[in-house]
């Protein structure tokens, strides 16, 4: 029996952020396994979202849920302590702008958070594979980071397949353009942690959409 689990983490990027608490609570009530919080600094990506002050406020109202922050920032080391103080559970950062990946992984763990390592579509999988033993999860981006609602890049599945073949129990996350029409592709490639923004937020039946995404992925895991 594999201990891999299919987990669905909606991204609140394209939700009504004036209602962040209500939107987040609704996603959790509708079956989300965790929340994927997209932090952008306007440097690493050409967009700005929010930072640790907002995450801390959200945490004060939502005590139990697993929070993953997807740090699309130029200097991920800078925000480790503030995000730990906001009770973030997993700190996922991009390795592209960083020269001391191992130090950052260590610091994240010292501050009580899990480590996620993310790569952009143009970054070879070998670049992140070097650090796999230092991480709890690898995020393969399936759009250029920066904006929600973009088209899923199917060619990124070769990276997911490669990782799954070599690391059968590794948590592998996909993020960007993932929804009911692309989930089969992600599941077959071997992703088990699924970020979905627009497709879940805009769904007429959020609970049914989350359930469909999870059961599609879990089915592939169970068949192996
Ligand atoms: O990291 C992201 C963008 O950089 C988002 O998590 C991602 O785009 C989710 O939104 P959608 O499912 O609408 O693509
Ligand atoms: Fe994201």
Q: Would you give an account of this structure?
A:
The protein is α/β, with parallel strands linked by helices and 224 residues long. The chain has a single domain, classed as Alpha-Beta Barrel (TIM Barrel), CATH 3.20.20. 36% of the residues lie in helices and 18% in strands. The protein has nine helices and eight strands. It has helices spanning 20-29, 52-61, 80-85, 101-110, 125-129, 157-166, 183-189, 198-201, 206-223, and strands at 7-10, 35-40, 67-72, 90-94, 114-119, 137-141, 171-175, 193-196. The protein has an eight-stranded parallel sheet. Helix 6 links the parallel strand 6 and strand 7 (171-175). Helix 6 runs parallel beside helix 7 (183-189) and helix 7 packs parallel to helix 9. The longest helix is centred in the last third of the chain and has 18 residues, at 206-223. The chain is globular, with a radius of gyration of 16 Å. The mean pLDDT is 97. The structure holds ribulose-5-phosphate (5RP) and fe (ii) ion. Ribulose-5-phosphate (5RP) binds next to strand 2, strand 3, strand 8 and helix 8.
